[in-house]
Design goal:
- The protein has 247 residues and is mostly helical.
- It has two domains: 1-94, no CATH class; 131-247, Leucine-rich Repeat Variant, CATH 1.25.10.10.
- Helix content is 70%, strand content 0%.
- The chain is built from 15 helices and no strands.
- Helix 5 runs antiparallel to helix 6, helix 8 (114-123) packs parallel to helix 10 (144-160) and helix 12 runs antiparallel to helix 13.
- The longest helix has 17 residues, at 144-160.
- It is elongated and about 60 Å long.
- It starts with a helix and ends with a helix.
Length: 247
């Protein structure tokens, strides 16, 4: 039995459930046991700040999350620590149905790197009832990682939301075109990925995305031109066309 489960079981034997503080300390202890200086040092290569990081591999974070289970209150407590891996853990521990609009905005304002931003969007936020609303709102933000979050949501919703309508993604394409001149690295990369993802969803959206990418590729703006040309190489390519023709 792992240490976390042993501690929780010992508390249960005494006739009470583990407190939130108990669970938080167990989670943090679990992260610290899995940490290493080598992993922490390697994070710099991926543009991830290490000031508040322990150095834990993603696979270990996900394994720990499975042991902890879903717990909305624990997720909030983990977020408040400010520790990089604790915030990554939130994506797999929080309960999507209990995540509120105010919480999403508050956490989004705390984003200070692409990894936490993208992981929260792909593993938690896109499963909430607020996902589409936040994608549209955040795509218009000025702060770099808040803006990235909007396009990260459009990106992952194109993959995960099987019931979304084309009209919802057309809004995303409009926001993509509007943001395509933002030269900041983590914004332009997310805009590009959102455009490519929407363009691979179905034939109709492929045509719409190609039209947007073509206009961007012809833009005098260097960032827009790069986004458009890079997207066209994939969404107008033979492999995507073939895959969509069989759907």
């Amino acid at each position: 039995m792992n240490t976390i489960m042993k501690s929780a079981s010992a508390t249960a034997v005494k006739g009470k459930q583990p407190s939130l503080d108990d669970l938080l300390q167990q989670a943090l202890s679990g992260l610290k046991r899995r940490s290493s200086k080598a992993v922490r040092d390697s994070m710099v290569r991926f543009n991830i700040p290490t000031e508040h990081a322990l150095g834990v591999r993603m696979s270990d974070i996900q394994a720990l999350a499975k042991q902890l289970g879903r717990d909305h209150e624990l997720a909030e407590a983990l977020w408040q620590t400010g520790i990089y891996e604790a915030r990554m853990l939130c994506a797999y521990v929080d309960e999507p149905e209990r995540v509120t609009s105010a919480q999403m905005d508050r956490w989004c304002r705390d984003f200070d790197n692409w990894a936490v931003c993208d992981t929260l969007c792909f593993a938690l936020f896109d499963r909430t009832s607020q996902a589409w609303k936040k994608a549209e709102q955040w795509a218009k933000k000025n702060v770099e990682f808040q803006k990235r979050a909007g396009f990260a949501l459009f990106w992952c919703l194109s993959v995960h939301d099987k019931t979304a309508t084309d009209a919802q993604f057309l809004i995303g394409l409009h926001d993509i075109e509007a943001a395509a001149t933002d030269p900041r690295h983590f914004v332009k990369k997310a805009v590009n990925m959102a455009l490519r993802a929407i363009g691979k969803r179905n034939k109709s959206l492929n045509a719409e995305a190609i039209a947007v990418a073509t206009r961007l590729a012809l833009s005098p703006d260097a960032t827009a031109k790069w986004i458009g040309k890079d997207a066209l190489r994939e969404i107008a390519g033979a492999a995507v066309k073939k895959r969509l023709s069989t759907k």
